[in-house]
Amino acid sequence: MSRLDEPLYFSNSTATPAASPAHVTLVGAGPGDPDLLTVKAARALGQATLVLYDHLVSKDVLKLIRDDADLIYVGKEAGHHTLTQEGIIELMIRLARSGRAVLRLKGGDPYIFGRGGEEAQALAEAGIPFETIPGISAAQAAGALAGIPLTHRDHACSLVFATGHLREAVEGEPRSVDLDWDMLARARQTVVIYMGLGSLPIISEQLIRHGLSPDTPAALIEKASTPQQRCLRGSLQTLPMLAKLHGIKPPALLIIGEVAALHEQLSPAMRAAHCKG
């Protein structure tokens, strides 16, 4: 079996209940660069014998797992889910109850739009012992590597994380994004939107409608921390057009606020950032 390309799946017959459930470790894999893993996460990867990993976990991170470990791919991409979230939780609990220690490897930080909180709740309710090892979030990595401080005394006194997932269309109505636009459109704050590339035109329109200037600095960071990282800087009004023009693809993080303008000053001195302004 190839550890990277041929995920292992378990049948119900392999999950005979053990006398007591094994331990589950929820691990944040960070944004992609294995050098950004915490020491504790890297140690856990080197010791794990069974790993359930997500779509956004990079192959470079997976290479840190021991050669004899079993890997199960449970990634979810837009329009294609290997397992439902409920299926992932059921599998994780079933394996732990069979006596196998499980390392659940999630991109970024498990508790920041990684549905790690749901998985932790399910483990607690099922009586499965677990721990959580945090990871550097996509927002932290994207901001730092693109020369965009998420907070700054002169520009942003608060920081808001949101998700830009499109809601399914109601009959007769267009697809929408269900966010607190009044709260997001406040001055002197940084807004970071995960999974917002597909809804970028809606986000731009709504924030302008709710009071933000069309000239508010904004940036898209694609594939943060990887060799393919790109940073596209514009304004709230121009960024949707620029994203289409430059062919930005997910995963991409949206940063809105005055701090985004600092990219031009800070990024030239940062060799790790591969940005296009």
What keyword list fits this structure?
single chain, 277 residues, alpha/beta, Cobalt-precorrin-4 Transmethylase, domain 1, Methyltransferase, Cobalt-precorrin-4 Transmethylase, Domain 2, 2 domains, five-stranded parallel beta sheet, five-stranded mixed beta sheet, 12 strands, 25% helix, 20% strand, disordered C terminus
Determine Rg (CA atoms, Å).
20 Å
* Rough outline: elongated
Structural class: alpha/beta
The largest pleated sheet is described as: 5 strands, parallel
CATH topology of the largest domain: Methyltransferase, Cobalt-precorrin-4 Transmethylase, Domain 2
| Poorly predicted ranges | 4-14, 272-277
Could you give the order of the helices and strands?
EHEHEEEHEHEHEHEHEEHEH
Q: Enumerate how many helices there are, as a single number.
A: 9
Q: CATH superfamily of the largest domain, please? A: Tetrapyrrole methylase, C-terminal domain
Order of strands in the sheet with the most strands? 3-2-6-1-7
Give the name of the CATH architecture of the largest domain: 2-Layer Sandwich
In terms of DSSP E residues, the strand content is 15-25%
